[in-house]
Amino acid sequence: MSERSPKPEWLKVKFPGGSNYVRLKRLARGLRLHTVCESARCPNIGECWEAGTATFMILGNTCTRRCGFCAVPSGKPTEYDQEEPERVAAAVDALDLHYVVITSVARDDLPDGGASIFAETIRAIRRRRPDCRVEVLIPDFRGSVRALQIVMDAEPDVLNHNIETVARLQKLVRRTARYERSLQVLANAKHLHPDIPTKSGIMVGLGETWEELIQTMRDLRFVDCDFLTIGQYLRPTMAHLPVVRYYHPSEFQELKRLGEAMGFLNVEAGPLVRSSYHAEKQNLQGASLHRL
Length: 292
Prior knowledge:
Blueprint: H1 19-30, E1 34-35, H2 36-39, H3 45-50, E2 55-58, H4 84-94, E3 99-104, H5 115-128, E4 133-137, H6 145-153, E5 158-160, H7 170-173, H8 179-192, E6 198-204, H9 210-222, E7 227-232, H10 249-262, E8 266-270, H11 279-290
Parallel strand pairs: 2-3, 3-4, 4-5, 5-6, 6-7, 7-8
Antiparallel strand pairs: 1-2
Helix pairs in contact: 4-5, 5-6, 6-8, 9-10
């Protein structure tokens, strides 16, 4: 596929703008906060920010890993701000949010991978807004069960960890992560707190086969993953991995149908779907099914 080939019509999005977009951007700047929406160049930033929702990215804006798909800057982090949880909570309160997603860069330089800051952020939000549901999208903490325990003990409403791609492409796409390790993170989360729903996400268009994609979905169900997001990989810059192909919306519909038939409580699948896209709608619906 030529890198200069135009994207399909179904991948076109509105240029970000609007009063809520400007308000959220000013709030994040004023509180010295990062959002994955900006750092990862999410295509949905205009829609989500105008709706007054965002995914806050804690532990700085520099990742210790250099994945082939991700636009977040990589290098040696310098930030470790113990006051950051309170600032995130202040932003959640100011935005009057009822559902928030908290993620982070990978911090392999820290003994607990940043797990304690995740936990304190959850608690800080709950102190200010007890009714706000909190989803966390965590790195793999290098497989540390102790670090995962710290996060799970803070009782997030949803524990999200993305497997990102099929087993064969892991080394190409996520150079430091491991397929089996990610599955184990999700399995360990269920073991530690069976009542907390788990979630994962897959990108398509990186060269995986349909059969590999279905097997990945089966592997996630084997570790009792509850929610799944499937979206089209979009190349952030020419320095990142190329798009091998674009999936048609009808293929995403079929993946959603197959995933729900496998037993996922909810599958959000579409060209522009990302881990936190419509997270409140998806997970509140799935959580109600989880309680039945």
